[in-house]
Design a protein that fits this description.
Layout (H helix, E strand, L loop, with lengths): L12 H23 L9 H27 L1 H16 L2 H33 L7 H21 L6 H8 L4 H4 L6 H15 L4 H27 L1 H14 L3 H6 L1 H27 L3 H7 L1 H10 L2 H16 L3 H14 L2 H18 L5 H17 L8 H10 L8 H4 L2 H26 L7
Helix pairs in contact: 1-10, 1-14, 2-10, 2-15, 3-8, 3-9, 3-16, 4-12, 4-16, 4-17, 4-18, 4-21, 5-19, 10-14, 12-17, 12-21, 14-15, 14-21, 15-16, 15-21, 16-21, 17-18, 17-21
The structure holds aspartic acid.
């Protein structure tokens, strides 16, 4: 597989992407600081012009890059899972890898929520917010919040959610972001079925999907050549509309959520990679630079998934069947950052609402944050409708989501990083346990 890491012109591609991130962010933040209006105030003509440029000119370029990444997700999920399961070979080994993968997902997701809950209980951001400020922020974002709550209506019935994982029509399910679990199930079953047939009966299928996979990775390589520009555009768009005034108003929430995510990434994910995969922090982050920047700028585990596979295989030497097995599952089901964010947000909003959640309810929040993180789609803001469901369950009005939506773009970018690095770390651990040496 060709590693799309080197760019022409001396500078390596990861360095160029990082530069794009810094440049896009710096210009966006500067313009925001200089011209963004205060909450509720009218925007100046200059800021209207900045917004016009950000929405009409810069965003389409960023979206072009994002869509190139999304474009290859369905074939890569399908091919890599089928080939992964078929390559693992025995149903016994698939079972072993599958149970360890699930154990990792559940263990790390619970750890992340626990950290989030502990931080909110310690810092108590909701109690530091005055009712007047809360009312002001709520009014500003209420319409958006109501739209999100409406989206969450379908997610209420848990049993139906489980039934919905099994697709009625596999082609139809692959066409929606929510239906990706159905595609995963189909690819897993096909891969398992292939281990039950004589190899010559499945040879053509394996060769065909192998070629399709290689072709998609080639396209991904081209897309990643555009990453420095695409990342700069996405970051500029996000930062120029950051809503710094609202960030100040919900400052304690923002600090708790971002602080928790940074702490979880730097201490827990790094520690897990060290402990379970034997990789020093320097080695781990040297291999994941492009992965982290892609996750941060796209806010999407799905869009980043082909890059996560490439990073595991090319940068760390994880066997392709293991990476191909873990990553599609992880991008959909393993969201440590999202779970942490959900725990923090629910408790924060309960504090603002004045609903003291007892230990029993906090345990319920923990369980629901883990489950909804599994169910959330790996797309920007994918977890918000499910967050509304958790709020309803603990008796907090879901419209209070309005309080956090103004800063969610940045929190979303940050939570997507542990979402994908935890998948990577899981594959590193499994590879090592199966006796494969990782690249030094
Ligand atoms: N943006 C997140 C992801 O794709 C999902 C979320 O938390 O909204 O991983």
């Amino acid at each position: 597989m060709e590693a799309p890491t080197e760019a022409r012109g001396g500078m390596s591609l990861p360095t160029k992407i990082l530069l794009g991130l810094i440049l896009g962010g710096a210009v966006g933040i500067t313009l925001n600081v200089m011209f963004a209006p205060a909450l509720g105030a009218e925007a100046s003509p200059t800021y209207v012009a900045v917004e016009w440029w950000a929405d009409q000119i810069i965003k389409p370029f960023g979206d072009l890059f994002l869509r190139l990444l999304f474009m290859v997700v369905v074939p890569v999920v399908f091919c890599s899972l089928f080939l992964g399961v078929a390559g693992i070979g025995s149903v016994q080994k698939i079972g072993r890898l599958g149970s360890r993968t699930l154990l990792w997902f559940l263990g790390t997701t619970s750890l992340a929520v626990l950290l989030g809950l502990t931080l909110v209980r310690t810092i108590e951001p909701g109690k530091r917010m005055s009712p007047e400020v809360a009312a002001q922020v709520k009014e500003q974002y209420l319409t958006v919040a109501k739209a999100k709550v409406e989206q969450s209506e379908q997610a209420k019935n848990w049993l139906q959610m489980v039934v919905d994982i099994v697709p009625e029509n596999v082609v139809g399910t692959a066409s929606t972001n929510k239906g990706i679990l159905g595609l995963i199930l189909f690819a897993l079953l096909l891969g398992m079925a292939s281990t039950r047939l004589p190899p010559d009966r499945t040879q053509v299928m394996r060769e065909l999907l192998e070629s399709l996979y290689e072709l998609c990775i080639k396209i991904l390589g081209w897309a990643m050549q555009l990453a420095p520009y695409g990342v700069a555009c996405l970051i500029f768009h996000a930062t120029s509309k950051l809503g710094l005034p609202v960030m100040k108003l919900v400052g304690w929430y923002f600090v708790t959520a971002m602080g928790g995510l940074i702490l979880y990434q730097l201490v827990f994910v790094t520690g897990l990679a060290w402990f379970f995969a034997g990789l020093s922090p320097a080695r781990f982050y040297r291999g994941c630079r492009t992965l982290i920047v892609t996750a941060f700028s796209t806010s999407s585990s799905n869009a980043t998934m082909p890059t996560t596979i490439r990073t595991a295989v090319d940068e760390f030497g994880v066997p392709r069947e293991i990476a191909g097995f873990v990553m599609p599952l992880g991008a959909t089901m393993n969201m440590n950052g999202t779970a942490l964010f959900e725990g923090v947000s629910v408790l924060f909003l309960a504090q603002v609402y004045g609903a003291g959640l007892g230990i029993g309810q906090q345990v319920m929040v923990l369980g629901m944050a883990v489950l909804t993180a599994i169910g959330a789609a790996g797309v920007p803001g994918g977890s918000i409708p499910l967050l509304a469901v958790v709020l309803l369950q603990v008796g907090v009005p879901p419209e209070l989501l309005a309080l956090i939506l103004g800063v969610d773009r940045l929190v979303d970018m940050a939570r997507t990083i542990p979402n994908v690095t935890s998948d990577l770390t899981c594959s590193l651990w499994l590879a090592r346990r199966e006796g494969h040496a990782l690249k030094e």
